[in-house]
């Protein structure tokens, strides 16, 4: 795979952007789509894959992406060792820890890159590398792959605000159903946050609390959404209402939706055809990302709640673990899985290759 100076497209004559994605399947796909968007504006784009361990298939997966997208350059940083202080089951903390372990190799890659990078774009899981960009004098940006509302909550770092207001030793589980009021989005009950974040001293909580400061130290945030979808939240961020007290709000660049373009057939997946046939603004969409895997019991509860709501819905369901895949109770419908229930609901199980993360 080519370095920025070796690309057949003669990228040495272009301004070069280095993008560092998180090593998860959905973030790698987003990195390619963002890279294509930047390349369409006559920028040279190099995607630097960090956080690889010897037991992952990320190398061969990245090679496949490179072959399919010759207009982009790909570079694999050396393997790193999984951090010993991070539980193996904590995928978020593992992803952040592995990315951080590659910072020294990333620094060396950027230091010798020719031509010198004009900008460094970091996945938010790779936030520790913002110091690398600052050290080398490279303008550094963050790419937030989720919604503007999610970015607002993260920048507002509601956990930190509660921690500052609470007495030492007080955790989320002691706050009952207290509502968190983040500017630009509806109030969120403390009980609705992931259980791992209820503990103020948990590793996952501490790592996420570093992200707002890292983002505020950057030259800007690129977000995978658009203002007309989330106008109130966008305006709240731009007005500086979501950043920690005393910190500047970096410029916000809405470039979404940046999504994988692959389609199942000439008109896309049949669930999209179903969606097109529904009245405008009538469908509830559920999708919990590549890490959002529900248990069989949780899946049944969500399905029951949706049915009882009487609302039209489109639900993207992750495949269940192998041990439960054959169970007829693992999902409300299990024939492949694409299902329509009359005119009121639709669902599908997407499939994608694993990046070995």
UniProtKB/TrEMBL annotation:
List the SUPFAM superfamilies hit by this protein, alphabetically: UDP-Glycosyltransferase/glycogen phosphorylase (SSF53756)
Task: Return the CDD domains for the record.
Answer: GT1_Gtf-like
Q: Which GO terms describe its molecular function?
A: UDP-glucosyltransferase activity
Concerning Gene3D superfamilies, the annotation shows: Glycogen Phosphorylase B
- Record key words, sorted: Transferase
- What parts of the sequence cross the membrane? none
Q: In its UniProt entry, what is this protein called?
A: Anthocyanidin 53-O-glucosyltransferase
Identify the species of origin: Zea mays
Q: What is the lineage of its organism?
A: Eukaryota, Viridiplantae, Streptophyta, Embryophyta, Tracheophyta
């Amino acid at each position: 795979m080519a370095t920025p100076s070796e690309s057949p497209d003669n990228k040495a004559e272009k301004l070069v952007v280095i993008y560092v994605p998180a090593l998860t399947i959905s973030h790698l796909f987003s990195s390619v789509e963002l890279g294509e968007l930047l390349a369409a504006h006559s920028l040279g784009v190099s995607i630097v894959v960090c956080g690889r361990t010897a037991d992952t298939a990320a190398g061969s997966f990245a090679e496949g992406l490179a072959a399919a997208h010759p207009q982009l350059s790909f570079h694999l940083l050396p393997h790193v060792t999984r951090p010993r202080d991070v539980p193996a089951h904590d995928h978020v903390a593992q992803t952040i820890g592995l990315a951080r372990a590659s910072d020294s190799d990333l620094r060396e890659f950027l230091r010798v890159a020719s031509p010198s990078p004009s900008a460094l774009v970091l996945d938010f899981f790779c936030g520790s590398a913002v110091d690398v960009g600052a050290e080398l004098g490279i303008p550094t940006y963050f790419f937030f792959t989720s919604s503007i509302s999610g970015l607002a909550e993260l920048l507002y770092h509601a956990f930190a605000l509660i921690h500052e207001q609470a007495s030492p030793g007080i955790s989320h589980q002691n706050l009952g159903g207290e509502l968190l009021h983040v500017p630009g989005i509806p109030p969120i009950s403390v009980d609705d946050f992931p259980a791992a974040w209820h503990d103020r001293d948990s590793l996952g909580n501490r790592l996420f609390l570093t992200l707002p400061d890292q983002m505020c130290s950057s030259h800007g945030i690129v977000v995978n959404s658009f203002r007309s979808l989330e106008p109130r939240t966008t305006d709240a961020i731009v007005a500086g209402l979501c950043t920690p007290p005393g910190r500047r709000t970096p410029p916000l660049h809405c470039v979404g939706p940046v999504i994988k373009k692959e389609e199942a057939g000439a008109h896309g997946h049949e669930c999209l055809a179903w969606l097109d046939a529904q009245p405008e603004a009538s469908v509830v969409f559920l999708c919990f990302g590549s890490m959002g895997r529900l248990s069989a019991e949780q899946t049944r509860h969500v399905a029951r709640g949706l049915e009882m709501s009487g609302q039209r819905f489109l639900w993207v369901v992750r495949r269940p673990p192998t041990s439960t895949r054959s169970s007829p109770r693992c999902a409300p419908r299990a024939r492949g899985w694409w299902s329509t229930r009359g005119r009121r609901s639709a669902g599908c199980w997407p499939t994608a290759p694993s990046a070995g993360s």
